[in-house]
Amino acid sequence: MTQIDLANRDGLPDALRVLLQQYPRDMWESHSNFDGLTRFWLERHLMFRRALAQWQDDTCGFLDKGRDPRAHGQMTARIGGFLINELHGHHHIEDAHYFPVLAQAEARLAHGFELLEADHHALDAQLSALTEAANTHLRALQDKGADQNASAGAMLAKLDGFERFLDRHLVDEEELVVPTILHHALKF
């Protein structure tokens, strides 16, 4: 049995993969119902993955190579604020607009869109913990007596844990949303 909560699942349950079987990932972009908004939405997901990787890389550079604390702090504030704020906004739009339309169009998968919305709540808790770790690290960077490596390590641990959550959610979301859009020729 597939776990359905974000922390424990390794993919969508088979019952939610029915359209994915009809519309596998490798044919999405060539499908006649694949439009600019769908491409934009997938690009946003890629942007989230890249921003997270950039934040992780910069933090590793600070820990391993002695990256300048000031430049690292600026990068942490900029990329961290960007990623966290953009994810909150993205999830709000999906929950308020896209998921209800998708669930109505494909009633068999309504539970899947509820699952994705529940993921957003789980991700909110992760984002709050990540925000706190980043703020703690930024304060440590301002305090010459603070253990800046310890705060960077704690933040990196949160980033690494968040990466698994985020990737699992994004993959599952893509595999539920895109086939539904393609199947029903939805336009938003």
Automatic annotation (TrEMBL):
Occurrences of domain Hemerythrin-like (ranges): 38-180
Q: Which domain of life is it from?
A: Bacteria
Q: Which Pfam families match?
A: Hemerythrin (PF01814)
Query: InterPro entries from the entry?
Result: Hemerythrin-like
Name this polypeptide is given: Hemerythrin-like domain-containing protein
Q: What organism is this sequence from?
A: Roseinatronobacter ekhonensis
